[in-house]
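Box 3.1. Reading complex inputs
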Amino acid sequence: STIVLVFEAPKGQRPSFDEGYQEGKREGPGWEWNIEPGQHVKVGQALGQV
Amino acid sequence: LRAALRSTKVEWKPIPVGLGIASLGVLQFYRIQRREQARQEEEARQTAGGEGGQDGGKPKKRQRVRPTGPWSVQIMSTLPLKALSRLWGRFNELEIPYYLRVPGFKLYSFVFGVNLSEVSEPDLHAYPNLASFFYRTLKPGVRPLDPNPHAVLSPADGKVIQFGTIEHGEVEQVKGVTYSLDSLLGSQKPKTSGTSTPSGNTTPDTNIASSPQSPQPSSERSKEGSAEVIKDDEEFAQVNGISYTLPNLFSGDLSSSTTTQTPATDQSTAASPSSESEVRADLALRASEQPWWAPSFTKTPTALYYCVVYLAPGDYHRFHSPVSWVVESRRHFAGELYSVSPYLQRTLPGLFTLNERVVLLGRWRWGFFSYTPVGATNVGSIVINFDKELRTNSLLTDTAADRAAEEAARRGEAYSGFAEATYESASPLLRGHALKRGEEMGGFQLG
């Protein structure tokens, strides 16, 4: 059996509406993975975090 | 003759189970072959006689997808996998003699690496068969949840096969084989419930037979989201549905979106509007070109991520909610039941889009969230705790899917390939079934 998760998450720091739209991106901490391919995980273990 | 009968030693030996399964498989295979041949002959006769068409001819049945791949995959695609899975399930529901249970389950645990100290029921005699042992529960507290409230938790015990970012609407499988989100989740935007009933009720789609494969019209999409763009991103008060979808607006990386290149998607024009109303009009125009699952436009620039977790036979086979989220709808794709072992994931392109699966669609704090348990030959059915109407790996659902495909063909439409139901909640704000992080959602059962 397999479980596939597909989700939306922030990709960078939160800019205000005008800042974000007019000044372009402002890189910052967004989504980060905590896992490696092939790693064994248990229920409740963090796969990643915002 | 008497002497021969008396002196000949009679020895009784059981027929191997594998042989029985194989013979049933062969019988089923020949039966399907005969049926298909008869169907093709009938179709050919109708075409030759001028009786075909939407009115007089026999409608087409659901076409089984034949995968491409190496010889092992080709052989597998000819096997009656669903019949084998159901037979395997029945076999595993046979009651094991009381005194064989403990050694049998201990052997199983040794072979597949089950940690018996975590099992909630320490007395293995309590499990009457392998199916119940397979669907065992764990002791409270053996799976602590990560304390970080912003973390996405592992939904199950298993092995991480692949994870990453979705670009161009495609999920990359191991070794570069990709499949599209449209194939995995369905190409249309999910329906949302409008009425309020107690939590957990489902409203099956009465028109599951067919629906257009193309995305919704742009006018409808932009109209739905126009009133709720850029709401506060507090939990469960997310932008309604999937309108205003500019995944990479703030980053300026529009090249990775799946939008067809039109003048409106050009980066140079992205920063040109000055007033907020112009910006919104611009966004509405762009949103009309986006697929329904594309990231919603909120204050926060977002992207789509995916993760594939494989559960081995010895793993705990119940699955849990990775985050707090609201499930708005589910889609059941009848599909086939190929194995989902890492080997086959590498060798069979688009495996997850061929297999039977239940796609749960909803939203969480940051927007779109989907959760897809994919079935396999040895693990026959998928159970969702809050969806009592769902039946997977069932002859009834197969028949219903065939009937739906026939009706779609009769109407001259394409078959969407799934049955959809929406979840309703007592609270009109939720618009779905709410789940807490770590909450048990369901599981995979044998057979």
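In summary: Confidence is low (pLDDT under 50) at residues 50-59, 173-177, 193-273 of chain B.
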